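Appendix B. One record, verbatim.
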Amino acid sequence: MLSSKNKVFIRGLFAAGATAAAVFAAPANAALPIESWTAASGAKVMFMRAEALPMLDVRVDFPAGSRADPKGKEGLASATGDMIGRGAEGLSENDIADGFADTGAQFSGGASSDSAGVQLRTLTSEPEFSKAISLMKTVLQKPVFNADILARETARSVAGLKEALTKPDTLADRAFATALYPNHPYGTHTTEASLNAITVADVEQFYKTRYLGNKAVVSLVGNITRAQAEQLANELTAGLPKGELQGNPLGGADYQELQAAMKGQTIQIDHPAAQSHILMGLPAMRRGAPDYFDLLVANHILGGGGFVSRLMDEIREKRGLAYSTYSYFMPAGDAGPFQAGVQTKKESTAEAVQIMRRTILDFIEKGPTQAELNAAKQNLIGGFPLRIDSNGKLLGNISMMGLHGLPLNYLDNWTAEIEKVTVQSAREAFARHVKADKLVTVVVGGKVE
């Protein structure tokens, strides 16, 4: 439920940061100097020094995503994330906004399906740096949750939800998630009733039990020293609540378990839109899956490579059924989905569904060709620098690594792991994870038959 309160997954591997690019100045083949340690508060720290610009990007993440929403109060995680920064001890909502603006800093917060947190981009020059960090500390550690502001934001959320539920893409996304994840947090959705049920007391309790300093991940990328990073990480988390959480708060269920709990089916939803919205997929990959790179390359060939993908060739180039089509894997704490999608005119719905399914089934059976594999690997390796070319992108990466326990050399080994993928490993991985009899098809608009 990616801050829109309706989405279920964190899309893509890399989180985009602020727009200014503070490029890490090092040779392309140099190891990224990522360090990690445990702060005195118990928080996990991920740090990378980047001296190209006098700036720091820092975020603090918690196991406080929508998967922790109580039944009947879906949207609580998002509401809590949204309320942080709208009031703090001795500071109004406007005071906080003006305080960050006066230092040239950018502050934001929010929640996704697995986690929630806050993020700051600030200059490292003084007095801007100290003022921005002090304000972030106050906002994070001493929030004030105002009932009138919560009521205002709830009304906005309800209005946004009502509008979204008129749109075919929202209807498709929600039906798809429900079918893939029955009786699972990834398959639940906010409703007008659940949003209106959330009280200030609920927000306060969620903050106290989920925004725990000893369970936080603090990620820092920018022009500060290791010593400064150590001090800063502890300052930002030492005053937070402390506690324990049962089990793995980010999940860990693999695709076999989640596929066993659902069934392949076709769901038809009528809608007056001119085009049909078609989704096809199943639960497929958790974060840290050992065959992640095999699946990444395989999907690049099937539907992730734009105009050179098989789905694009079959649906657009050969038949002109759509302008665009795609597929991707979305790794999450529990196995996130493999999803393919297309929009087409209503009278082409049945043909588009047939071609999409046939292309996926053929890929399950035969996998890629050697030529396709070579081209995909070249494209992914050649494009890798664009995934880490700014502080914001690096911050998103190391935050993900910290949250999900990926090794510190994950980015250093990324291109080498792509190189290891073979036709056989790509085919076998895709066939393991994508089962024909478990595919869910959702069609909003035209008729499947």
